[in-house]
Amino acid sequence: MLKVVLITGISGSGKSVALRLLEDTGFTCVDNLPVPFLQEFLYRSADTGLEQVAIAMDIRAPGDLHQLPSVIAELRESGMPIRVIFLDADDHTLTQRYSESRRRHPLTDRLRQDGQSPSLQTCIDTERHLLAPLRETEHVIDTTDLTPGQLRAWVRDLVQADRSPVVLTFESFAYKRGVPGDADLIFDVRCLPNPHYDPELRPLTGKDEPVAKWLSQFGSVENMINDIASFIERWLPLYMQDTRNYLTIGIGCTGGQHRSVYVTEQLALRFANHSPLLIRHRNQPPVDIPL
Question: Which of 4, 2, 27, 32 is nearest to 16 (CA)?
């Protein structure tokens, strides 16, 4: 059966990085396909024996992007398995990326009035409004503080996950860098004992055995993990009935290095029988993973 991945999202959020990753892993890729051509292209792709197709569709599509959610729904109802990944980033990051690349926003010409070009912020705000229906219904990856290597790894993990009513993702993050926009549920573990104040543990992470052993000695840590796990166990069946395909659970501490990482890893162990299950550590020391 044809495997379809559709990459969409806010301009400047990393769609080109994601599409190149899929191309390098064997997908037949098409960028900026007009919405009216999507169904015919996918049906023809299936008829010709293609196995993996990736398509990028975004605000560059003139005038008909509002039809995309209904087109996706029709394809799914017809039995076409289509995974949609919506990439996003905060306004500051988007502005910085445009400044570094010196590229114009794709809405610049369309929003021009009386010969005056709109501001970049106006273009970003308009794009967010137009793409809101897609963002609210599909899987979101917030690329604000991700390296290109991290984004490639996350997209690779996601497209390799088997189809399931809910792709369950546990994601650690640092509150000092802001709450990630891709999380559906947020749990704050900053109240737990902090290994940061131990000079020997400070350079390590929550995945390292000395930190894990140190945290496991506290009853409050175990109680927190038990309470979060119980909440998820109770409500996960209802999330699955809600016809959603993804549930991302954010676990946050101050620096995103010790407590949130440890709790995330422990929760993933508790739910190891759920498939597919993904683990993400947003604020670990950055390592640009090669293709």
Answer: 32
